[in-house]
Backbone:
């Protein structure tokens, strides 16, 4: 069943009920958001605003988008890209593309002009919808995109080189275009996060999207009275696939633009949020704000908040211990996935397994998992190998890249590139990215193990461990450490803290610096390797 049918069902059953709310805590100008269909409410001097949408309006807007695409010659199988910040228009545009039988191509809002051009060409996109934040980037390249037949602008103050999404869709029918869709039809192209080089175009079918729906609602049990807080970017599979639980249950969700701890807690309190998906840095920021006294939990109504879950990266057990100290009633889950496996859920901890915190968990709903050696043979329990997954959510291919596809798809199994081990109870622990393993003096060093150890230090906010060249050992482990605000620490103190680790695992270099992360929370280790290569180390600050 195509996912568009779930939206149509919700519009029929719950048409007058609110399904989406957009809240922007940092809006300074009312004139920036004058879409007439939505109520703008200024709640404070900072210019906070909210916009609401019902299921009926959501479905109608998706239909208008679909009919516009068909009217402009976009046919089944054509690719239509989305370049928007999280906003109330994002999901109706996405579903409108699907309803037209076209393939949605979400783009990372951090892409430069050249990266946007690269991805549009790689995906062979023929249309693009973009927002106000991207005018300058699009103006620099739109003349170099002859394949783009339709360039739509969603927002006020339309640039002359684009057409108005609002005006054009307003003149289109709100009835479904009735384009036949099957589970096997191509649906979306997502791009890999690019932490290992240029992003790859990941093609998924409608079956993949429905797999994500069933997996999410099975894992987190969304009900009609739940309200999901979505903060991560919708262009990424993680945020959207967790929202699919709201879609399946016909429940509400809030799109929050802003990640300050005060904003998150204020939204949870005032919107009666029950489920929040966080990235590790945001959870750390909330805890730091509580422990510094900047945030007082008694100022917020949080009793209805039932579930906090984290994904996109390994979760330090020390973080969850801290979290449960302040939120003892919360259910907790962690989710593992890749864009190639339609986002989170192919492995998850499960709310009943908090005693196994530190593990990414067990195979997700309707997923199979193996840990294999370099020959593809299962490794003995407890040994480290590459994590592989199999299920209906595995990508169809890397679009237009058969060589890269063949390298990761083997008889229906997806090689994740993550090194993992399984304990005696069947729980899987990530050891590290295959490409991040450090080989020092013939020993394999897995950076995640060192990072988890260092995060237990009270002064450390974030840490990344990378391998650096060494004439004698081949590589050495270097720890890039970001300290909490107001904390001081020396390289010697860090080295002493690491003495409980086996000698070969102790970092040989201690560097104090900011740890860069991409919008989905993953550490950008290629940037660190480039910064702290042989030449970079000369100028590195190795002590305080």
Residues:
């Amino acid at each position: 069943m195509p996912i568009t049918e779930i939206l149509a069902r919700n519009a029929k059953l719950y048409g007058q009920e609110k399904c989406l709310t957009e809240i922007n805590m940092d809006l300074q100008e009312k004139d920036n958001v004058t879409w007439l269909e939505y109520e703008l409410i200024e709640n404070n001097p900072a210019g906070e605003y909210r916009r609401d949408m019902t299921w009926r309006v959501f479905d109608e807007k998706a239909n208008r988008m679909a009919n516009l695409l068909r009217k402009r010659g976009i046919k089944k199988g054509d690719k239509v890209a989305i370049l928007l910040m999280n906003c109330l228009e994002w999901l109706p545009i996405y579903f409108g593309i699907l309803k037209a039988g076209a393939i949605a191509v979400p783009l990372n809002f951090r892409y430069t002009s050249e990266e946007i051009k690269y991805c549009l060409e790689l995906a062979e996109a023929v249309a693009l919808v973009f927002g106000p934040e991207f005018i300058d980037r699009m103006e620099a390249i739109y003349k170099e995109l002859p394949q783009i037949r339709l360039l739509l602008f969603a927002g006020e103050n339309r640039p002359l080189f684009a057409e108005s999404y609002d005006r054009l869709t307003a003149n289109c029918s709100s009835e479904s275009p009735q384009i036949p869709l099957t589970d096997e039809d191509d649906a979306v192209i997502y791009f890999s996060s690019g932490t290992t080089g240029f992003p790859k175009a990941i093609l998924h079918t409608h079956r993949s999207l429905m797999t994500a729906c069933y997996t999410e609602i099975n894992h987190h049990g969304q009900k009609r009275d739940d309200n999901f807080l979505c903060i991560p970017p919708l262009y990424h599979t993680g945020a959207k696939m967790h929202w699919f639980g709201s879609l399946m249950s016909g429940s509400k969700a809030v799109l929050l633009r802003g990640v300050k701890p005060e904003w998150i807690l204020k939204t949870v309190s005032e919107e009666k949020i029950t489920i929040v998906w966080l990235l590790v840095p945001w959870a750390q920021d909330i805890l730091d704000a509580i422990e510094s006294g900047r945030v007082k939990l008694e100022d917020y109504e949080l009793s209805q908040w039932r579930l906090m879950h984290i994904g996109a990266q390994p979760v330090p057990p020390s973080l969850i211990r801290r979290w449960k100290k302040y939120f003892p009633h919360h259910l907790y889950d962690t989710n593992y996935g890749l864009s190639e496996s339609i986002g989170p859920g192919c492995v998850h901890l499960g709310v009943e397994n908090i005693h196994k915190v530190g593990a990414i968990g067990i195979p997700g709903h309707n997923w199979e998992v193996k840990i294999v050696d370099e020959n593809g043979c299962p490794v003995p329990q407890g040994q480290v190998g590459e994590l592989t997954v199999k299920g209906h959510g595995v990508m169809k291919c890397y679009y237009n890249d058969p060589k890269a596809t063949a390298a990761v798809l083997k008889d229906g199994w997806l090689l994740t590139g993550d090194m993992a081990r399984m304990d005696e109870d069947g729980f899987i622990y990530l050891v590290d990215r295959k490409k991040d393993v450090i080989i020092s003096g013939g020993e394999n060093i897995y950076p995640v193990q060192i990072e988890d150890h260092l995060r237990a230090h009270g002064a450390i906010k974030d840490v990344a461990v990378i391998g650096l060249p060494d004439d004698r050992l081949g590589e050495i482990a270097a720890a890039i450490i970001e300290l909490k605000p107001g904390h001081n620490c020396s390289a010697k103190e860090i080295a002493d803290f690491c003495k409980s680790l086996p000698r070969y695992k102790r970092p040989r270099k201690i560097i104090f610096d900011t740890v860069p992360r991409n919008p989905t929370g993953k550490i950008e280790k290629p940037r660190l390797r480039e910064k702290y290569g042989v030449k970079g180390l000369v100028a590195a600050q190795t002590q305080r």
